[in-house]
Write a structure and sequence with these properties.
Layout: E1 8-19, E2 22-34, E3 39-43, H1 50-58, E4 65-73, E5 76-77, H2 83-89, E6 94-97, H3 101-104, H4 111-122, H5 128-141, H6 147-150, H7 160-171, E7 178-182, H8 190-207, E8 210-215, H9 218-224, E9 227-232, E10 235-241, H10 242-247, H11 252-259, E11 309-312, E12 315-317
Parallel strand pairs: 3-8, 3-9, 6-7, 7-8
Antiparallel strand pairs: 1-2, 1-4, 4-5, 9-10, 10-12, 11-12
């Protein structure tokens, strides 16, 4: 992929939450870029910090959140903007698709009204006729059949897949340059999931939209991503192109995730699982956070947090044992 100036540059971002006298840091020193037209997947177990990272970028966290570092979108540090300035960017320059559309769509409003609301805010000079036409165009763009009739329906009258398509239509209403998709296919059946992934990929290729795709499902990552960030306990532990990640994973956590993927091999009916449980984010173990669950762990792993080092060309891993062939 030809390198441009990054559309999004996240540098040394940490996100903490204050609860009474206790402060918990759930995202720690995260850095990555997204190029125009690139799909970057962030993968990890629940509680790894991937969703908080996306909400930090969008400016959608609660008031008790504190973000340090820089989040530069199109040359502008979002953390220096006022709330009003961030709101103007959301929906126009950058949009987000959420995991469960029924909790994001207003059950009391028809589909056309919910799309029209976004257009009215960001395109105040448009006429009612223009907004109506754009609404139909958007529903058509996301492959919704009979868009005129669908526009008149309420969310509960649509299937889960159709509701997710509506969410994507709303996110695309103002042709954003950056799209963040937070587990957009989790609640969908396999067939609908494949259709939604194909739709996002098509829109990405057609419009040159930069995409941050958040998921816990590596099979989804394999089908859609250009580059992958693996997160564990709030930190990025591996970064690589999607091909390199699956072909030569460097971090034991990534290897564990890949080995836990179901296959078509009927002779092996049991799935491999990573031993233990993710750590309490407020009480992380010393050194490498993964060492209590790691088959490669040595005493050195408990001493300090390893750096995210380049282990091979454009392939980074946060592990002191990553290039030991004996344990590869």
């Amino acid at each position: 992929m030809k390198q441009h100036k990054p559309l999004l540059s996240v540098e040394n971002v940490s996100t903490s939450f204050q609860a009474g006298k206790q402060q918990s840091t759930v995202v720690k020193d995260v850095s990555f870029t997204v190029q125009p037209g690139e799909i970057v997947a962030i993968v990890g177990e629940s509680g790894s910090g991937k969703s908080v990272t996306s909400l930090s970028i969008m400016g959608l966290l609660k008031k008790n959140a504190q973000i340090t570092g820089s989040i530069v979108y199109n040359g502008q540090d979002l953390l220096t903007l006022t709330n009003k300035q961030r709101r103007l960017l959301r929906g126009s320059e950058m949009s987000m698709i959420f995991q469960e559309p029924m909790s994001s769509l207003n059950p009391m409003l028809r589909i056309r009204s919910q799309i029209a609301e976004v257009l009215t805010i960001h395109q105040p000079s448009w006429t009612k006729k223009q907004i109506t036409q754009k609404t139909i165009d958007l529903l058509t763009q996301v492959d919704i059949p009979n868009p005129e009739q669908t526009a008149l329906r309420f969310p509960h009258q649509l299937s889960g897949g159709m509701r997710q398509r509506v969410m994507i239509a709303i996110a695309l209403a103002c042709d954003p340059k950056l799209l963040i998709a937070d587990e957009p296919t989790t609640a969908l059946d396999v067939t609908t999931q494949a259709q939604i992934l194909s739709l996002i990929k098509t829109l990405n290729e057609k419009n040159g939209t930069g995409v941050v795709f958040i998921t816990h499902d590596l099979s989804v990552v394999a089908s859609i991503a250009d580059r992958v960030l693996v997160m564990y306990a709030g930190r990025i532990v591996e970064e690589a192109t999607v091909f390199d990640l699956f072909d030569q994973p460097k971090h034991p956590y990534t290897i564990g995730l890949i080995e836990a993927m179901p296959t078509l091999d009927t002779e092996n009916e049991s799935l491999n699982a990573i031993a233990g449980n993710p750590p309490n984010i407020a009480k992380l173990p010393s050194g490498c956070s993964f060492h209590p669950r790691c088959p490669w762990a040595t005493d050195a792993c408990t001493e300090k947090v390893p750096a995210l080092d380049e282990k091979s060309a454009n392939h980074f891993a946060r592990c002191i044992h990553a290039n030991k062939e004996a344990i590869k």
